[in-house]
């Protein structure tokens, strides 16, 4: 009975001091501290929505321009068709990277946009330099790279922005958190220091 009384007192004291548990010291962010408002970290879900949204809008623009039919249109309809086609094509090349650009992943966005453009120009140059009746293989490679890299970028932009945000948070400096704890034979303080 004597051993239980100090444990009960310590447990009650720990519950009464609940708001003090795992609080960071003033001026130092704890290990799981939320981002302070002055950092303004980009949202992972917003980056993902931007990438996917621009790809879908670009595909819709190309679909609408294709609905205009052949090139026998004249006047303003022909100009509208070409404008929609150009905007849709630019959106398909740059659109998947928009979320990465928003999230601060400029290198990744430029690399994958460059990959899409490079494969398209290389495929076009190959098709023009070789007199083949059927350039289906070249078209499949170019289209596969365009679609595959767009899907990859839309699927992984969230984790790329998350890693970028974690790196920005880590540059804030050392973090110190102090938390009390209770054990069967006493209690103590837990100190966490992360760099």
Describe the model:
The protein has 195 residues and is mainly alpha-helical. The protein has one domain. The protein has six helices and three strands. The chain has helices at residues 4-16, 44-66, 76-94, 98-103, 106-129, 136-170; strands at 23-24, 175-183, 186-194. It has a three-stranded antiparallel sheet. Strand 2 (175-183) and strand 3 (186-194) form a beta hairpin. Helix 5 (106-129) packs antiparallel against helix 6 (136-170). The longest helix is centred in the last third of the chain and has 35 residues, at 136-170. The radius of gyration is 28 Å and the shape is elongated. The model is unreliable at 10-33 (pLDDT under 50).
Primary descriptors:
single chain, 195 residues, mainly alpha, three-stranded antiparallel β-sheet, 6 helices, elongated
Identify the strand order in the major beta sheet.
Answer: 1-2-3
Helix count from the secondary structure assignment: 6
Helix-strand category: mainly alpha
List the helices and strands in order. Answer: HEHHHHHEE
How many structural domains?
1
Give the overall form: elongated
Q: Low-confidence stretches at least 5 residues in length (pLDDT < 50)?
A: 10-33
Q: Considering DSSP H and I runs of 4 or more, what fraction of the residues is helical? A: 55-70%
Indicate the proportion of strand residues.
5-15%
């Amino acid at each position: 009975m004597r051993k239980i009384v100090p444990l009960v007192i310590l447990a009650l004291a720990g519950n009464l001091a609940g708001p003090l548990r795992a609080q960071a010291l003033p001026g130092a962010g704890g290990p799981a501290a939320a981002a302070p408002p002055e950092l303004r970290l980009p949202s992972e879900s917003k980056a993902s929505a931007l990438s996917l949204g621009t790809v879908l809008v670009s595909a819709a623009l190309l679909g609408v321009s294709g609905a205009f039919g052949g090139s026998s249109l004249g006047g303003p309809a022909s100009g509208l068709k070409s404008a929609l086609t150009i905007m849709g094509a630019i959106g398909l090349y740059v659109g998947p990277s928009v979320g990465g650009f928003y999230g601060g992943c400029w290198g990744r966005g430029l690399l994958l946009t460059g990959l899409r453009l490079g494969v398209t120009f290389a495929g076009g140059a190959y098709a023009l330099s070789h007199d083949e009746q059927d350039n289906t293989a070249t078209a499949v490679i170019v289209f596969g790279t365009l679609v595959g890299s767009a899907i990859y970028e839309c699927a992984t932009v969230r984790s790329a922005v998350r890693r970028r945000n974690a790196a920005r948070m880590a540059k804030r400096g050392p973090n110190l958190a102090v938390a009390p704890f209770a054990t069967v034979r006493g209690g103590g303080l837990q100190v966490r220091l992360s760099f």
